[in-house]
């Protein structure tokens, strides 16, 4: 009987140690959100930027755009000289969105994508020039994962190099 009670006690001690290790893994800090009962109350679901001890927030959300900038409407003229430049920001769903731009948008003349090729041809209706500048339409013309600075310096020269000087639009 004593042997059985030692096994039960050992099992309980092992279970307790396992629970402590899991808790430390899930909640490594000294103040664990999982252990606070206040975190589950509806009053705690207020402003996510307000500190619990009412000290000033370390992070204040700011946007560099006015409401007018965010709500403005832009008309894209696919038959004219307008060009969409897709800036791919890594780990934000950009590959999926870039594929969507060349495969799923309903246009007068949709992009032509051939099976087995990553690059699609996105020409303007009745012209042999592209309306989309992305890795799925022009390839890696400005380098792998080009950022804003590289694109603003590279795109005009790549696009304009394919046109005669008199046909280049002013940008």
UniProtKB/TrEMBL annotation:
Q: What is its main location?
A: membrane
What does UniProt give as the signal peptide span?
Answer: 1-24
Query: Listed GO cellular component terms?
Result: membrane
- Swiss-Prot/TrEMBL keywords: Glycoprotein, Membrane, Signal, Signal-anchor, Transferase, Transmembrane, Transmembrane helix
InterPro entries annotated for this entry?
Heparan_SO4-6-sulfoTrfase (IPR010635), P-loop_NTPase (IPR027417), Sulfotransferase (IPR005331)
Judging by the UniProt lineage, the source's domain of life is Eukaryota
Q: Where in the cell is it found?
A: Membrane
Name the top EC class.
transferase
Task: Note one Pfam family from the annotation.
Answer: Sulfotransfer_2
Catalysed reactions, semicolon-separated: alpha-D-glucosaminyl-[heparan sulfate](n) + 3'-phosphoadenylyl sulfate = 6-sulfo-alpha-D-glucosaminyl-[heparan sulfate](n) + adenosine 3',5'-bisphosphate + H(+)
**EC number(s) per entry:** 2.8.2.-
Entry membrane topology: Single-pass type II membrane protein
Q: Name one GO molecular function term.
A: heparan sulfate 6-sulfotransferase activity
Q: Name the job this protein performs.
A: 6-O-sulfation enzyme which catalyzes the transfer of sulfate from 3'-phosphoadenosine 5'-phosphosulfate (PAPS) to position 6 of the N-sulfoglucosamine residue (GlcNS) of heparan sulfate.
Q: Family per UniProt?
A: Belongs to the sulfotransferase 6 family.
Q: Return the protein name.
A: Heparan-sulfate 6-O-sulfotransferase
